Structure formats: C-alpha cells, structure tokens
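User:
Care to share a sequence and structure tokens?

Assistant:
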Amino acid sequence: LEILVTILNENDNSPVFAQPNLIRDVPEDTEVDTAIVAREELRATDADLDTIYYELTTTVQDTDGYFAIRGVNNPEIYLQKALDYDKFNSTTLLLYARDGPVTSPDHTHTATATITIVIKQSDTRAPWFLPCNYLHNDTSVCISSPYSGRVNISEMSTDPLLLEPGPIYAVDPDYTISDRIVYSIVGGNTDEVFVVDADTGNLTMNKIVTSPDSFLLQVMASQVSNIRKYSVATVEIKVINKSDCPPYFEKAVYNGTVFVGLPRRSFVYQAGDPSTPLVIMAMDKDFPDV
C-alpha cells in the first residue's frame, strides 16, 4: 500500500528586510521622479514564498507627499515632489512589508524598515546683498535696497567711501555651502572713476571727478565656485561741492505763539504777529543758493 502525503504550506513566517535601517542623503535639487532607494535594497523576502505587499508612510509632520513607492509590489522609493531645504532638511520613512493584502481576511505578518532621508542643501540661490528684508516672510527671497554715497567735486578720497544703508556686502544664502563672494563693477563707471575691492566690496576712487554729474554704478557679486550664481546691486554716488562751513540759523532764538483749542498740524505763529506762521530758516555759506 503506497500512501502519498502532501504537506500544505502554512503562513507561519514573517517577511524579512535585508536592511531594516537605511540612511540616504538626497540633494535639494534632485529632480522629481528620481529613484532615491533602489528596489533591490528594499525588497523583503518571505520563507513561505508569499507575495509581498508594500506600504510607505512618513513619521515627520508636513513631509507627506514628497516620497513614494513605485507600486504595491515594488518598494523602490522615488521623489514625488520637489524638495526645499528651507521647509525641512530631514524626514523618516517607514516601509511596511506584508505577506498579504491589507484587506485580506486571513492573518498576515508584517515587517518594518526605517529609511532616514537627509536633505543636503544645493547651490540654488544667487548671492544676497545686505541688509535685506524677506519678501512676505518668505525666507527664500530677500530684497535689498540700493546703496548711496557722496564724493566731493575735484577731490579724491583715499579711504573707502561711506555708503548708506551700509558697506557693499553680499552673502551666499545657501548657508551650508557659504561660497566665497567676489565683487566687480559691471556698469555706470564712466571714465573708470571708481574701483571696488574684489574681496571686501570696499568702493574707492580711482581719480577725481571734475563735473557735478552723479554716477549710478552696477556692482556684481558672484560666487567663486559658480560664476553663474550672481546678483547686481545699484550704487548711486552723488558728486557735491565740498562743504567747509557748517550751516547756521538766521536767529539764535525763535519765539512763537499757539492758540488753545487748535487742531493737530495747525501752524505755530510768530510771537507778536498772529497772522504770520513761524518759519525757522538755516543757511550755509558753502551753498548760498540752497
């Protein structure tokens, strides 16, 4: 008598990840749809030879939707949405492997792999001239004001020019890269009157100015390792007559009269002459026509 015994496979094994913990560095400028972790690195095995079903979630708030898997049976992780280092610079993903569909009425086993994603800042922004103000509280855009200064006609200063709202200075806003900045004048420098120090940004005179014309310089700040990343700021230099004398008031003491009950912004009148507004005037011998 021959007896044929068939052993039925029971689902008594859990899926197993070869690498249950992975760390991946991802550049900020990675293109959408780029594979982040290959399928071969994430594929789980099951001693019962069951079909594996995968699910990917994130544990960090506000990082949903950036990473996804190719399919329920394909665990390759790819970038689904463009990254922004200013929004977040790391996240943790959980990849679940089940030996049956989530909706299966039968008992299933689950394995979990943890994938830590570290975002590396990329050189995505041009230099910022300081001081600057964020645009609508958006830390990725900072708007600077034009620089301005003055020089005396027919006189050459040997010191760096004093500018408002401060000296010419730019930084690399990709602060983890912080590339070195170099400066150059790219426009408005008629007759090469001015020169800018490539390293410090200090603006100095190269020759005297003999006419009262003003200058509107364009100063470029570019990154040393990536010259395609640059910004241009305007510097208005006004040419004025040299001032040797301080201004002076016509009188040492002014007397005025105000009336009770007048509204705000009403005139103050001259004392003894309630019909004539009080006017305070100053003069300057260097500028008799002003």
User: Anything to note?
Assistant: Residues 16-120 form a domain with the Immunoglobulin-like fold (CATH 2.60.40.60). The longest strand covers residues 110-120. Residues 215 and 237 are 5 Å apart (CA to CA). The chain has three domains: 16-120, 128-240, 244-285.
